[in-house]
Write a structure and sequence with these properties.
Helix 3 packs across helix 4. The chain is an all-alpha fold. It contains 19 helices and no strands. Keywords: Membrane, Nitrate assimilation, Transmembrane, Transmembrane helix, Transport. It is a multi-pass membrane protein.
Amino acid sequence: METQKTSFWKSGHTPTLFSAFLYFDMSFMVWVMLGPLAVVIAADYPMDPMQKAQLVALPILGGSILRLVLGALTDYIGPKLTAQIGMLLTLVPLIIGWQFVQSLDQLYVVAILLGVAGASFAAALPLAGQWYPKEHQGLAMGIAGAGNSGTVLATLFANRIAQHFGSWEIVFGLAIIPISVVFVLFTLFARNSPHRPAPKKLSQYASVLRQGDAWAFCLFYAVTFGGFIGLANYLTIFFNAQYGLSAVRAADFTTLCVIAGSFFRPLGGFLSDRLGGIKMLTVLYGGAGVMFALIATMPPLAMVIVILFVGMMCLGAGNGAVFQLVPQRFGNELGLMTGIVGAAGGLGGYALPMLLGKLYQVTGSYTPGFIGLSVIVLIALGLLTVMQMKWRTTWASAAPIAPLPGRLES
């Protein structure tokens, strides 16, 4: 007789789930602050297109590197303590950016140090995911991962605060307040799961990276998350340069697009639990590829916002779909794999602004950059199709025959 499954809200630890969300949310807000502020900062430190791209890409690069560090710490000292250390370290670039920056080079240093906030991914998702069974992983990881909605707070308020106070530096100072509040709440309510896997040896890290599936997931997430975070950081520059919008208005339109990517992530995980992560990812890659090809035509502003909204929605939901699959394939290495896959997503997010900025500087147009992005998404779709055929064979014995939530086959 089939056993009755526990409901989602009774199967894990809700205070920890929402603590992980808050930690991720505020960290993301800090991580992407330079994206919307780049146009304002350029008034103090004039930059060419590549310098602007580098400024908004460096936090993503720092996050990508430090996710590996926080991923390892998550395995060894636990996700809760790792997250607490991460929040304390996040205060360092905020204080420097608020009080001590006097040149563009110093701002680049702050930018890469902001990566510690982006590395929150490697602690927040294992903290939440380790509490939940496989049939609820998509929704649990989706809710915790929806903390990328912190991007919305940055794009909506950063330029307004800078305009109100007449200083972009004050944005860094004020960001210390929510990080400190969340640190206290997190300390009080978050708990490590009693089912946390034992720490991995260094040789096991190498063993995971020798598996082709790990590299496939890295590419999948480099496209979905990398596309989302790269565009979230760069769209204010894009709207300002291509459509001549002011810093505040450009950031407002960026906010609309970021909302789609942020709030559709849990839906992507939820639907993947029920329809299958591979099937969802196939549809979402196809949709994103078409949307970015349309953007390459540089349509009118109203139309490009709608197209970007749909494209970012596909990427955001795709993040949820990827992380519905990761715990099923690498359940015993979840902390390690979230760090590795998250790092790959960060590298994708670093490369995207650099690609758009370089091609714009060389050609004077964003068309080649968005054509390139569309092609990359469709390449990921092709790889997914190939991997699906492999997984049908290698995971067939583990996948349920009936169409149950969270199945691995399409």
